[in-house]
């Protein structure tokens, strides 16, 4: 039985370490899905949360200001809009343009603008994109798998 | 034609259902006629699905826009290759491809086993045709590919189609889905054999011997599919990454992980009669993860940046998975006696133990990836709040797992079966450890301080030395005995035991890929707004934007920046990143320009013209060290897989080591 005890200890040590790493990974990167309406009514105490918000890009609202890109997204059926400023490093996706459905990850700033660190976009629904794969983009900037 | 296509699909569904029932009843009541008719129905399904696919493909090639599918995925100006690739360019077509490949595989299985495995085959056919029936239902009722637009009846006319998504108009992308599907679909076969052999309580490990090649081939296809996806992401998406832990990418990785675990632990069953339950679980898990992967990519259950249409497919897949998993679990639990292990673990320092830990780590990784992928679904179900996790989570867990697996890759092949002493370990691992220490010392001396990078390069050296040593020792012995030249002896050695030495080559490929992945710890990037004619720097390179030109062809219009590359003042050539707008879909895409070298890639993306200054371009420049080694490693891995598939010159009888008694150390005689 001694052999099984040894295996048990080794296995527990490995799984324990991995579970600990996983827990800290979740803490660091967990992102809440919010709608624009929910985001607007979020109490200030939750302002530090990482949030993912989705909306349609308001036509004509995209402006480049040096390294930053400013634009507005809206919920069409409710008529609420959100000012977004993107300052991430990665280039904006090709599908990001007027009327595209954009998914922004970031945090709310006190002034009511949303500071996005990454943007993903789907083409306007008229063109259902194809299978297999279309446009992955790191949902969180930061080391991709490769940063061994 | 369209009616014929839809009709063949319907008929294929009926025939697949018949083949399933005939095989089950035939196998149960021992009716040879029913069994035989079930087998023949398999060929019929294949012919019908081939006909349906041919009709769809010919409509695509002929740009017959009466077909809704053709109008949505194709346009006249697209090159023929992409018209053909549009077969799997949309939901309906790619499910048809799934079905067709399954029927192809099934026919091959039925044909190659027409005289073998009499008792097993009806049940194998039953499993294959059960799955086939499910996919045919999807083809016929849920996602029919032969829907027509009411063209020519005064309702509407379609002068041109929408075109294939421009991001998919790239040669790697045309090949990626079929390769991935060949992998996904292929695992039905080992699963079917395992299931049938459990059901009929076949003595011995017949199903493993029969499906060994299958597992390896499909594993190879899955690897090809994943790598093509990475190569495409790197070259097309413009951010220079090859992996983003997106749900769709994870979907392809999950079965690959369990399949890798299976390929290893199956050796334990062949040689030692151990881990039988485990292997049955692994082969089933791989199959269901393949189905689950198709489900994830096709149903939009986890919101992915991959823009898929939401569809009603989800509930069908959930149903299939629920039924399949319940039956399989029930069967495995009922057969626990039959799956009893024939040997016990004896030592932590043994080959058995290295396999065990290999499996543990792979499964932990699989579980973590699955957990992370489904996190939004799980949190929404249990807390009501939808929360997602990103790359940091996946990296934190998987990088240490990857490194530990790399260590085992080096240790496993050299450690003895049953038990190993510290003395023999010291002898076996002297050189590999020296290689590792040397590598790490040199890197430290050159100022590398990144912990994981150091570990990774060190372990890569460790594994590489073990693999080279294995080849060297074996080949030297053969060369001395048979008076051969050393290179010929290496070939001879490999040929004598292709599975072993092919396996080493696969390991070598993995080492090279790790070197490539590790390089990303040293990536550099910059985004510059540059006036035409002026220069900027990244790393050792100096880049000058010479000119911006534009033009158009029927498929797309383009704008191209010509950028001269200098290093240390020396002119190296021009790179021409491009922006395109596709005419049919009005979607812009970037065509990056890459200068690929073994030490590093220079990667340029022409983001846009500056909005404030019409004479300036926004250029994103990246330097990716060592990234080419990922692709080189992949070719080595592929070559190794092919070597494994060549039959060995010497037929090893794989005599099982029977445990006659367990050696117990006698207590020291007390003086």
Word description of this protein:
The complex is a heterodimer of chains A (148) and B (671). Chain A has a five-stranded mixed beta barrel. Chain A folds into two domains: 1-27; 31-122, Nucleic acid-binding proteins (OB fold (Dihydrolipoamide Acetyltransferase, E2P), Beta Barrel), CATH 2.40.50.140. In chain A, 22% of the residues lie in helices and 31% in strands. Chain A contains two helices and seven strands. In chain A, a hairpin with a 4-residue loop joins strand 4 and strand 5. By secondary structure, chain B is an alpha+beta fold. Among the domains of chain B are: 1-164, no CATH class; 522-625. Helix content of chain B is 61%, strand content 11%. In chain B, strand 10 (600-609) and strand 11 form a beta hairpin. Chain B is globular. At the A-B interface, helix 1, strand 1 and strand 7 of A face helix 7, helix 9, helix 13, strand 1 and helix 14 of B.
Descriptive tags:
heterodimer, A: 148 residues, alpha+beta, OB fold (Dihydrolipoamide Acetyltransferase, E2P), five-stranded mixed beta barrel, 22% helix, elongated, disordered C terminus, B: 671 residues, six-stranded antiparallel β-sheet, four-stranded antiparallel β-sheet, 19 helices, 11% strand
Level-1 CATH class name of the largest domain in chain A: Mainly Beta
Total of DSSP H or I helical runs spanning 4+ residues of chain B = 19
Could you tell me the CATH topology label of the largest domain in chain A: OB fold (Dihydrolipoamide Acetyltransferase, E2P)
Number of helices of chain A: 2
Morphology of chain A: elongated
Query: Biggest β-sheet of chain A, characterized?
Result: 5 strands, mixed, barrel
Q: Let me know the CATH homologous superfamily of the largest domain in chain A.
A: Nucleic acid-binding proteins
* Average pLDDT score of chain A: 74
Mean pLDDT of chain B equals: 86
Low-pLDDT runs of 5+ residues of chain A are 124-148
């Amino acid at each position: 039985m001694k052999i099984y005890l040894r295996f048990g200890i080794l296995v527990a040590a490995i799984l324990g370490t991995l579970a600990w790493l996983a827990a800290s990974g979740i803490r660091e990167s967990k992102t809440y899905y919010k709608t624009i309406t929910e985001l607007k009514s979020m109490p200030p105490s939750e302002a530090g949360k990482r949030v993912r918000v989705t909306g349609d890009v308001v036509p004509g609202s995209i402006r480049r200001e040096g390294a930053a890109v400013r634009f507005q997204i809206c919920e069409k059926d409710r008529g609420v809009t959100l000012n977004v400023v993107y300052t991430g490093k990665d280039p904006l996706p090709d599908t990001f343009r007027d009327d595209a459905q954009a998914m922004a990850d970031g945090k709310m700033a006190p002034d009511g603008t949303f500071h996005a660190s990454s943007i993903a976009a789907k083409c306007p629904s008229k063109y259902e994109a194809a299978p297999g794969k279309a446009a992955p983009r790191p949902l969180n900037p930061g080391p991709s798998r490769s940063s061994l | 034609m369209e009616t014929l296509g839809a009709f063949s699909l319907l008929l294929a569904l009926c025939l697949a259902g018949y083949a399933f029932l005939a095989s089950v009843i035939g196998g149960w009541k021992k009716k040879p006629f029913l069994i035989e008719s079930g087998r023949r129905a398999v060929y019929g399904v294949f012919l019908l699905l081939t006909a349906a696919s041919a009709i769809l493909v010919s409509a695509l090639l002929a740009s017959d826009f009466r077909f809704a599918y053709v109008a949505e995925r194709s346009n006249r100006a697209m090159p023929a290759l992409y018209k053909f690739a549009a077969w799997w360019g949309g939901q309906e077509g790619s499910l048809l491809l799934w079905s067709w490949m399954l029927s192809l595989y099934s026919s091959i299985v039925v044909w190659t086993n027409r005289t073998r495995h009499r008792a097993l085959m009806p049940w194998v056919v039953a499993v294959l045709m059960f799955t086939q029936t499910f996919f045919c239902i999807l083809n016929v009722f849920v996602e029919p590919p032969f829907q027509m637009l009411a063209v020519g009846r005064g309702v509407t006319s379609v002068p041109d189609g929408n075109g294939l998504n421009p991001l998919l108009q790239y040669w790697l992308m045309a090949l990626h889905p079929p390769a991935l599907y060949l992998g996904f679909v292929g695992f039905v076969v080992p699963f079917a054999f395992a299931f049938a052999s459990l059901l009929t309580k076949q003595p011995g490990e017949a199903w493993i011997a029969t499906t060994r090649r299958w597992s390896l081939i499909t594993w190879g296809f899955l690897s090809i599919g994943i790598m093509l996806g990475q190569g495409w992401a790197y070259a097309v998406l413009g951010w220079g990454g090859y992996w983003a832990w997106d749900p769709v990418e994870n979907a392809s990785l999950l079965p690959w992980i369990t399949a890798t675990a299976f390929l290893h632990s199956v050796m334990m069953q062949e040689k030692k009669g151990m881990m039988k339950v485990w292997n049955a679980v692994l082969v089933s898990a791989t199959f269901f993860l393949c189905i689950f992967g198709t489900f994830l990519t096709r149903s939009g259950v986890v919101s992915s940046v991959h823009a898929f249409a939401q569809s009603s497919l989800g509930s069908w897949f959930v149903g299939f998975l629920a039924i399949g998993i319940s039956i399989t679990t029930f069967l495995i639990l009922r057969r626990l006696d039959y799956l009893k292990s024939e040997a016990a673990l004896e030592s932590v320092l043994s080959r058995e133990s290295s396999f065990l830990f290999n499996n543990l780590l792979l499964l932990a990784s699989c579980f973590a990836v699955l957990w992370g992928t489904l996190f939004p679904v799980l949190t929404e179900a249990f807390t009501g709040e939808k929360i997602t996790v990103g790359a940091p989570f996946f990296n934190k867990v998987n990088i240490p797992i990857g490194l530990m697996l790399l260590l085992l890759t080096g240790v496993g092949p050299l450690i003895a079966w049953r038990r190993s002493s510290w003395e023999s370990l010291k002898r076996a691992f002297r050189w590999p450890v020296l290689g590792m220490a040397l590598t790490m010392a040199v890197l430290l001396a050159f100022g590398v301080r990144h912990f994981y990078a150091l570990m990774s390069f060190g372990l890569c050296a460790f594994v590489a030395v073990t693999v080279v040593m294995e080849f060297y020792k074996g080949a030297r012995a053969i060369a001395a005995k048979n008076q051969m030249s050393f290179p010929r002896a290496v070939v001879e050695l490999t040929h004598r035991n292709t599975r072993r030495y092919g396996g080493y080559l696969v390991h070598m490929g993995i080492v090279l890929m790790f070197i490539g992945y590790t390089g990303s710890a040293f990536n550099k990037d910059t985004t510059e707004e540059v006036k035409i004619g002026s220069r900027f720097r990244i790393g050792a390179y100096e880049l000058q934007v010479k000119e911006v030109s534009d033009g158009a062809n029927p498929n797309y219009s383009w704008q191209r920046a010509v950028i001269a590359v200098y290093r240390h003042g020396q002119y190296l050539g021009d790179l021409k990143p491009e922006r395109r707008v596709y005419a049919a879909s009005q979607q812009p895409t970037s065509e990056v320009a890459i200068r690929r070298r073994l030490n590093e890639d220079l990667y340029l993306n022409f983001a846009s013209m500056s909005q404030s200054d019409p004479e300036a371009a926004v250029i994103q420049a990246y330097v990716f060290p060592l990234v080419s080694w990922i692709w080189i490693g992949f070719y080595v891995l592929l070559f190794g897989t092919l070597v494994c598939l060549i039959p060995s010159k010497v037929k090893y009888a794989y005599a099982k080591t029977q445990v006659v008694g367990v050696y117990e150390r006698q207590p020291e005689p007390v003086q």
